[in-house]
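Hi,

I'm pasting everything inline rather than attaching a file, because the server keeps stripping attachments. The sequence lines come first, and each chain or strand is labelled.
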Amino acid sequence: VGSILEQMGIELSGTTRTPDEIIDRVLVKARRQSAMHGGKRREALERVLGVLAGLNALRGSADIVLADARALLAAHAVPLDALDELSRILERLADYDLPGVRIELAPGMARGIAYYTGMIFELYAPDAESPPAPDALQICGGGRYDSLARALTGRSGFPALGFAFGVERLLHALSPTAPVLQVRSRVLIVVHEPEARRSAQRLADALRAEGTAVVVRDADRDADRVCDHARRAGYDAATVVRAYAPDRPATGVCATLFREDDASAGTI
Amino acid sequence: MSREVLRFAIPSKGAMEEPALRFLEACGLRVVRPNPRQYTAAMGSDAVQAVFQRAADIPQKLITGLVDAGITGFDIFSEHLGEGDAVVVGVEDLGFARCSLVLAVPEAWLDVTTFADLADVAADFRRHGRSLRVATKFPRLVRRFLVENGLSSHTLVESSGALEIAPSMGYADIIADINETGTTLRANRLKQIEGGTILRSQACLLVNRRALTASPAKLEILRGVLEMIEAHQRAARIISITANVEGASIEEVAQRVLTQRALAGARGPTIAQVFDPDAAGRVFAVTVVVPLDQLAAARDHLRLCGGGTITVARPLYLFDDRSTLYAALCERLRPGDAGG
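And the predicted assembly:
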């Protein structure tokens, strides 16, 4: 190429880049352009933009949006894994049985932070419109960021989920007359199997109404070790909730309790 | 108490001096400078004192209050004063000294025709541990432009001499400089790139906020200057056409002319009787003032109305019932406004 250009009387020397550098990039650019004009890449790009624009247009009640998103992705042969995960999250959310809470899906939502790797969410005050007005009171926001720990520590293998509440916003949403509960104790509730989740949640609600701080989590270890773990983590009590089974003598809830002032753990 | 005088900076010793003086004269603000070594002169009236300064020094003179107002390039204003509020723009488009601040790369860079190419080359440089060096006299404007357009990996080489030779001398890779016609760039084997225009500029009138806010007398003198500039600029856009038309009466002629409302003057035609001793009927002089680009259409319309001889005159000034420039300046001078 260099000699052709020379024959054409095109001078490439006399600048801060060498003639080779310039020629190399001319070739790179030419290749890139011919790939673009080949049509395939542009077409693919436009297809992706089309799907994204379609998703962005969806917003509203979870069932409808999920169905529409499924149809849209299926029509473009996009794998549905992400929507399946979202369905599972919604099923779990339903188990919390939150009265007065409206759940909406907005596939086009963005939070302006680049570290999220999965679902993101925002909480608005109960009187917010749908979609929330630009000045609506967003009291919490968060999501999944599995690669954040690696970015910060250089160590991998820390899946993570987090959120932040705006304390002033929360107070504003709660109105100045809302009662402030004094936390008396901390209880860990472990859900033994998915069927027990509703019962666990009702127990948690009842305890919280009395001013007890409650953490509900899925079982990932043996019941005896739950006690050890809870004690070490500073809980005042821990309980494992199991689903009702006719062959078990106990009623629906089977709990393991311990207290700091009690030397031994007991079972109800 | 001595009478207040508005000190008005005029660019001197550069490309802007002559067009600035010509412009002011056309505005009825003639600057009489008896000898070129004299740095002050009367401008239009004794109430305005012209102070000759280099265009690049005028921002500093305005900030320090050595002058109350002045003319310089919008590029110079943006570089030195664009972010402060001590100096506000009085007239942003005086219509002369038009130029652009542009990026220029060596012609030999065949692969670089757009800003995206340049960003690509800068990225290549960075991979090889180099930084794209840009020689310029406008470091603030250039840095902001490059960063806003995603080319943050660069080094500015500040230089006040002839920038065009920097790439061939090797002390910069490319330049960002003022360009009027492109001739200087081509002579130095440089070329502009698509998306490489940093700023379009022309002469503008600047005002020292503090001086004009503090002195109603100076503001009143400046109003006079702005009125003249505005009247000159307005007059440049219109033309006055007079045709002699035969007809029965003023009303009858007016009716004919008004059939084309848009070509019959903003408030309608002015019609006066002409006393022609040789004419059989009555003759009327019809005058319409129309936008410059309507000259041909208005001429044809007046002919259709029976116009014989048609004379055309360019008005020197057009004064409206109030000065928009002055009203806008007062708005900008209000406290709390960032100006410009």
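The CA atoms of residues 129 and 136 of chain A lie 8 Å apart.

If the labels don't parse on your end, tell me and I'll reformat.
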